[in-house]
Each structure stands twice: as C-alpha cells, then as structure tokens.
Specification:
521 residues; mainly alpha; Growth Hormone, Chain: A; 27 helices; 77% helix; globular
Length: 521
C-alpha cells in the first residue's frame, strides 16, 4: 500500500469519530418536536435535552487530552466508540425525560473524546504538506454525520406516514423519535471494529520511549527518509523539554504561550458564538418559524446538511493551497452577512390570522379560542406566540404553534432559506474545519494534549450555552434579535482574524512551535 493511501485509510477510519459526533449531535434536531409534547417540556427543559450532550462533552474535553497522553490516542477512541453505542441504545429506550438526558450525557462523553483526539491523532501521523486536508477529514465526517442525521430523520418521519405493513410493525409512526436516536448504534459498532486496524500515534509512542514502533509507523506514513527527519525534529523538541516537570495546565498561561493561547481561545469562542449549533440542532424549528410546515422544514434541514457537506469538501480542497487565514476571512464575512439577512427577514415578517386561515386550521385546534385574534396583525413572532399562549393555553399553544404560524405569517421563506444556507456554506468553508486544523498546529508537542483540551473545553462550553438558551431566545427575544447577535459575533471574529492570526500552512509542527512560542531570553 502506498504512503498516501495508508495515511488516507488511517485518517478516514479515525475520522469516523467525527461522523458519530455529527450524527449524535444533530439527530436531536428531529427529536425536539416530539419530546417537547411527549414529556411536556418547558423551553429551558427543551434546551437542556439538546445541550446536555454538550455539557458532558465539555467535561470529557477536560480529561481526554491528558488521558490520551497517559494511555494513548487509540485507546481513548475505542472508549468513545463504546460510549456512542451505549448512548444510542439507552436514548432510544428512555422511558422518561430524565433517563433520556442521562443517556444523551453518556454520548456527550464520547463526543468530547473523539472531537479532541481524532484531529490530534491525524495531525500527528499526517505529512506536513497534507496535514490540513487530512485533519479536515474529521470535520468532513462531522458534516457527513450531520447530513446523515437530517436525512434519516426525514426518512423516519416519512416511514411514520407509510401504510406498509413492516413500517407499521416497527411502529415508525408511534416511536419515530426513538428510531431517530437508536439508529446511531450501527455506525458506533462499525467504528469500534475499524479502530482495530489503526496504529497508535507515532508521536505518542516516542513520548513513551517506543522509538522503533514509532519509526515503523512513520515510515509507512511518510517514507523512511522523511520519517528519519521527523524523528530528529521530535527528539529535538522533546530534548528541549527534558528535565521539566510533568505538564501542568499552568504552562498554558506562560508568557511564551500568550499568542497561541489567545488565538485558540478567541477562535474557539467565535466558532460557536456565531450560532452554528443553533442551526444544526434546531434546523426544523427554525424553518417552521417561516410557516412552511413540519414536513417541509425537515426537508429543508436535509438541504442544510448537504450544503454543509459540499462546502466542507471545498474547504478541504483549498485549505492547503490558499491557507487557513484567507478561508477564515472569507467565511466570517459570509457568516456575518448571512446572519444579518436572516435578522432582516424575520424583522420584516408580520402575523395575521384571517378567516381563511381559521378555516384551514387542524381540527384539533379550538377555532373559537383563536377567533378572538382574527384580523389582528402582530409585528413580531414573540408578540404573536404570546397571544396564542393566552388564547389557547400553554400546552395547546406549544403543540399547534407550527400550524398557527403557518396560517398567519407573511414572510419571504426563500430569503430565510438563503440566509441559513449562506451561513452554513460560509461556516463549512472556513471556521468549521479550519479551527480544528489550527488547534492541531498551534500548540507545542509537550503540551498539545492539555492545550487542545483547554481550548476545546471553552469551545464546547460556549456551544452548550448557545444550545441551552436558543429555544428561550426565540420565545423571548424573537428570531430577528437572536440572529442579529450571531452576526455581530461573526463581525468581531473577522476583525480579530485579520489583525492577529498568522498563516500556518505547509510548516511542520516543530517549525510552528519555533515560530509561535517565544522562549524567554
């Protein structure tokens, strides 16, 4: 097997952790509509059902890097695969909201581990000239997993409407959300088996003093001549750290680390503060706000996944050609513009219940209760939803919110779709994959595990907050204000990248350490 094919196979196998992360995180987008009514959840409880996975992912990021330094990258990935499978099975069978949340939190441990360790492993085995593209395999697999979740959610929803005997027997109609969650068991098992055919990270093996094994793995990956050169650079890096005490998190705050740590923290915050997981985890909910209905909202969520996939591939094609910084500049500008378009689209919407709309409401909706709102025009979604809650009560108001918005809204849904797709495309071609490439490049060998865990922890903590409050934001601030906030974060991030980020493409990890980490004189 050629060097390129060997590295490609290993990277793709390891990056299956990204697929599971994307699937596990985004499959909830199709579930929220069902569990909100089944378990009678408040908006914060609904946000908790989504964000609980990210909370434990955040905790896992705190320990997965140091744990991988102790027991190896490969063993941590094995553990992640097991956690994914356990989470999928328990989520599908959950009899209560509390059990569902606990099962999701178990999956979050796998998400945190694979999100940190997979790109770290790939960066440590890939040749410098191909590292950006190889590390991006993890992000590619994340978006493939997201797309697969959107597609399987839509497919299961349609099977629930089917009259086929086998579909009825499997109760796709009654237990649609359970099937959505349980399907992840299959790729989790495949990932577990695939990891048996992946070697340990050669750089970790050198840290453990297993030079011959590391040499053979590097030789298969980059050739014997290049392996000899890389081994020399790694030994030089390790020799510089010889005699130092065990790695401590306080080393991250040393003056020499100020630049790379600042870059890592800001990029970690901006990636999530622009609202990407609000779109991925709540896509059908967002599209339902435009009045297109449940089936169409699930179908458009599939389009979001496909857009994400296509533009992630574009990023992979160009990340090692034009560099990390140009992609970030282009993408963050596109994110800001797209969010401002979304904010303007929802700000321009009006809500009026007409006589024709009343006649076309579902039979379960009390027309008499809603009739008092006939002819009234509301300028914001918050005002309209508050009026519905007052007329119908909390539970019916939540249950039939989509149908009532569909009957009353006046908006350009294509403008909203364009804004969402523009945002997803801009994210996927830039800060989505580029952030993890930067994280795998910026930090020195000695503290890479704990450093990536630290900035990953910040990234995940911001993601948790965004997911938790998104349903509450929609209910209290409205769609326009929510998307405006995301756009402002993107604009701030663009200014930072232009002013502070150096280019990292084409350099070895040891060269970047010498460039970015300034030792005290």
């Amino acid at each position: 097997m050629s060097k390129h094919r060997y590295v490609m196979r290993v990277a793709l196998t390891v990056a299956m952790g990204g697929f599971l992360m994307g699937f596990d995180a985004s499959v909830i987008s199709g579930v929220v509509k069902f569990i909100e009514t089944e378990f009678d959840l408040s908006k914060i409880e609904l946000g908790w059902a989504v964000s609980s996975l990210t909370l434990t992912a955040t905790l896992a990021m705190m320990v997965s890097g140091p744990l991988s330094d102790r027991i190896g990258r490969r063993k941590v990935l094995f553990l992640a695969a097991i956690l994914y499978a356990v989470s999928a099975i328990c989520s599908a069978l959950a009899p209560t909201f509390v059990i569902l949340v606990i099962a999701r939190m178990v999956g979050g441990l796998g998400v945190g581990a694979s999100l940190i360790i997979a790109p770290m492993y790939i960066a440590e085995i890939a040749p410098p000239k191909e590292r950006g593209r190889m590390v991006s395999f993890n992000q590619l697999n994340i978006v493939v997993g997201i797309s697969a979740a959107f597609f399987t959610n839509y497919l299961i929803l349609q099977l629930g409407y089917s009259d086929a005997g086998w579909a009825r027997a499997l109760m796709f109609d009654e237990h649609a959300w359970r099937w959505m969650l349980g399907l992840e068991t299959l790729p989790a098992v495949v990932y577990f088996i695939g990891l048996f055919f992946v070697p340990e990270s050669p750089r970790w093996l050198l840290l453990e003093g297993r030079e011959e094994t590391a040499r053979e793995i590097l030789a298969r990956a980059v050739g014997r001549e290049e392996a000899h050169k890389e081994l020399g650079e790694i030994h030089a890096s390790l020799a510089k750290d010889a005699g130092k005490e065990k790695v401590s998190v306080m080393e991250l705050f040393a003056p020499a680390m100020r630049l790379v740590l600042t870059i890592g923290i800001v990029v970690a915050i901006i990636q999530q503060a622009t609202g990407i997981n609000s779109v991925f985890f709540y896509a059908p909910m967002i599209f339902e706000q435009t009045g297109i209905g449940t089936d169409a909202s699930f179908a458009q969520a599939v389009l979001v996944g496909l857009t994400n996939l296509v533009f992630t591939v574009v990023a992979m094609l160009f990340i090692d050609r034009i560099g990390r910084k140009p992609l970030l500049n282009l993408g963050l500008a596109g994110i800001a513009l797209s969010m401002f378009v979304l904010a303007w689209g929802f700000q321009s919407a009006t809500y009026t219940i007409t006589g024709d709309a009343l006649a076309n409401l579902p039979a379960e909706v009390s027309v008499a209760a809603v009739a008092e709102l006939e002819g009234a025009t509301f300028e914001s979604d918050v005002e309209f939803k508050d009026a519905l809650q007052g007329a119908l009560g909390d539970e019916p108001g939540k249950q039939y919110e989509s149908a009532l918005i569909n009957a009353a809204i006046s908006i350009n849904p294509w403008l909203v779709l364009l804004g969402v797709l523009g945002f997803v495309a801009s994210f996927a071609v830039s800060i989505g994959p580029v952030m993890w490439v930067l994280f795998s490049e910026l930090f020195p060998n000695r503290i890479r595990g704990i450093a990536i865990s630290f900035v990953g922890l910040i990234n995940s903590a911001v993601s948790f907050g965004v997911q938790l409050v998104f349903p509450w934001e929609l209910a209290n601030f409205g769609s326009a204000t929510t998307f405006l906030i995301y756009g402002l974060f993107a604009a701030v991030g663009l200014v930072f990248v232009v002013l502070a980020l150096p280019e990292t493409k084409g350099r070895s990890l040891e060269e970047l350490e010498a460039l970015l980490v300034k030792s005290p004189a």
